[in-house]
Design brief:
Elements lengths: L5 E5 L4 H13 L4 E6 L2 H10 L5 E5 L5 H12 L2
Parallel strand pairs: 1-2, 2-3
Length: 78
């Protein structure tokens, strides 16, 4: 179901996001998992734990839709 898919997780450094990433990496082979959150330290810590080649991390606030759009469109075209 999630094999070869691009998955965006907003607020991805929280408890749900970490468990969801753990589950995805265990059961599927996604193309990309994009973590989008405001907390740079939590992203750094999460990147140390989840260093799979499909992982991408972006700092930002989901309420700033222009920023979200620019960052994700650039990432998804690569």
């Amino acid at each position: 179901m999630l094999n070869d898919k691009n998955i965006l997780i907003t607020g991805g450094t929280g408890s749900f996001g970490k468990q969801f990433v753990r589950t995805i990496l265990k059961n599927y082979k996604p193309n990309k998992i994009i973590i989008y959150s405001r907390d740079e330290l939590k992203q750094f810590e999460m990147a140390q734990k989840f260093n799979d080649k499909c992982m991408r991390y972006f700092i930002g606030d989901i309420r700033d839709l222009t920023s979200v759009y620019k960052k994700l469109c650039l990432e998804l075209t690569m």
